[in-house]
């Protein structure tokens, strides 16, 4: 698609922000085949990584969690952050790596964030919400 947009490099969006999803009923084989044919695999990979990051942190819509994955051939760039509610304390990651279908990178990077103060930050956020 040719869509005008402006990149805001300082902003990490909410995980899966702006993605359009269409689902069919599991019993409707024909419609599911059609939907499968319009799936964009690169976007699916990125969305799954972003959602795995969010889910591993156990964050929801009100938690200040950002995640953005970009896939270029076999390379992925993954930017993500967990911030305090006031935005003064952020734990961020910005990684580039070769994509491997077997590894759950969203979960991997969430665990790194949790081990570097994210666990305490998530507890603080949950107490304030």
The tally of structural domains comes to 1
Overall mean pLDDT: 91
- What fold name stands as the CATH topology? Double Stranded RNA Binding Domain
CATH superfamily: Porphobilinogen deaminase, C-terminal domain
Q: Identify the CATH class.
A: Alpha Beta
Order of adjacent strands in the largest pleated sheet: 1-2-3
Topology readout:
Elements: H1 29-37, H2 41-57, E1 65-72, E2 75-83, E3 90-98, H3 105-128
Helix pairs in contact: 2-3
What's this, in brief?
With 129 residues, the protein is of the alpha+beta class. It contains three helices and three strands; from the N terminus they run ααβββα. The mean pLDDT is 91.
Can you characterise this structure?
With 129 residues, this protein is an alpha+beta fold. It has one domain (29-128): Porphobilinogen deaminase, C-terminal domain (Double Stranded RNA Binding Domain, 2-Layer Sandwich), CATH 3.30.160. The chain contains three helices and three strands. It has helices at residues 29-37, 41-57, 105-128; strands at residues 65-72, 75-83, 90-98. The protein has a three-stranded antiparallel sheet, with helices on one face. The termini are far apart. The mean pLDDT is 91.
Task: Summarize this structure as a short list of keywords or feature phrases.
129 residues; alpha+beta; Double Stranded RNA Binding Domain; three-stranded antiparallel β-sheet; 3 helices; 20% strand
């Amino acid at each position: 698609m040719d869509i005008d947009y402006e990149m805001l490099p300082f902003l990490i969006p909410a995980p899966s922000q702006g993605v359009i999803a269409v689902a069919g009923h599991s019993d409707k084989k024909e419609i599911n085949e059609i939907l499968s044919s319009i799936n964009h695999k690169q976007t699916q990979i990125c969305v799954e990584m972003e959602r795995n990051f969010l889910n591993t942190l156990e964050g929801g819509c009100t938690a200040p969690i950002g995640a953005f994955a970009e896939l270029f051939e076999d390379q992925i760039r993954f930017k993500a952050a967990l911030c305090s509610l006031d935005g003064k304390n952020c734990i961020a990651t910005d990684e580039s790596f070769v994509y491997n279908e077997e590894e759950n990178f969203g979960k991997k990077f969430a665990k790194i964030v949790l081990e570097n103060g994210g666990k305490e930050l998530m507890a603080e956020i949950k107490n304030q919400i």
